[in-house]
Design goal:
Blueprint: H1 8-24, E1 28-32, H2 35-43, E2 67-73, E3 79-90, H3 95-100, H4 109-112, E4 118-120, E5 131-141, H5 150-166, E6 170-176, H6 177-181, E7 192-202, E8 207-217, H7 218-233
Parallel strand pairs: 5-6
Antiparallel strand pairs: 1-2, 2-3, 3-5, 4-7, 6-8, 7-8
Helix pairs in contact: 1-5, 1-7
Protein name: N-acetyltransferase domain-containing protein
Organism: Bradyrhizobium niftali
Length: about 230
């Protein structure tokens, strides 16, 4: 069945809610598409961990129209918030297989992956995440802006822009256990969460993590955008 065309006005209203909320908190948001520039920003941002290879053009180039990043700056123009989103075409695969093949991280694992790199996905639902999948990651919030609802804003922007660009079948993320334990994950407003999303080891990247899988379906995302638009219009 053909999907309904996304309503641009609804998307605009949806995004405006989050942009206005960011402005009230002293954060000016912008969106970019040049990932070389994004990496140059993240590398010079104090306290931010290195960007994973799936958002770095030297390891996993992102074609035009298949990714975007967001930055928020404070009143002094200093970076306060960062995050990135890319679209995976999993029409012939699924998220679990894509992770375990390491193709989620490297355009060509045979060239860039270390022989001891590995990724195990135990979350059962990851096998069902396929089609156009928007992957939301590399989130960072400066310490003085934490505890102010910024994750909700950034997730909302990621949802809205992803919907506008791709109308994806799924939006998903891999998140550390501490976000779940501290209740921060709830601020991202993902509908579903599952343990065992990724047990990842990337030797040369010095990455060794166990993350949860969190996701929202395309239908749930459309419903959320439409609902926000109706509430905004009241």
């Amino acid at each position: 069945m053909m999907k309904r065309v996304a309503n641009p006005l609804h998307i605009s209203r949806f995004l405006q809610v989050y942009d206005d909320d960011a402005a009230r908190k002293g954060v000016n948001l912008s969106i970019g598409f040049d990932f070389d520039r994004y990496v140059s920003i993240t590398r010079t941002t104090p306290t931010k961990r290195p960007t994973y290879p799936n958002f770095r053009p030297d390891r996993s180039p992102i074609k035009s129209g298949e990714g975007f990043w967001m930055m928020g700056v404070d009143k002094n123009g200093e970076v306060a918030v960062l995050q990135a989103v890319r679209m995976y075409d999993l029409s012939r695969s699924n998220f679990a297989d894509y992770l375990e093949s390491l193709k989620a991280f490297y355009a060509d694992p045979t060239v860039h992956a270390h022989p001891n790199d590995s990724c195990t996905c135990l979350a059962p639902s990851a096998k069902k995440i396929s089609g156009k999948v928007a992957y939301h990651g590399d989130a960072w919030v400066r310490r003085d802006y934490r505890g102010k609802g910024i994750p909700n804003i950034m997730a909302g922007m990621a949802f809205g822009v992803s919907f506008a660009m791709w109308a994806p079948d799924f939006v998903c993320a891999l998140v550390p256990r501490w976000l779940v334990d501290k209740g921060v994950l709830a601020q991202y407003e993902y509908t579903h969460n599952e343990l065992g999303g990724s047990i990842l080891r990337l030797v040369e990247e010095d990455i060794s993590n166990e993350d949860w899988l969190t996701w929202v379906t395309g239908d749930e995302l459309r419903t959320r955008v439409d609902r926000h638009a109706r509430e905004f219009a009241r």
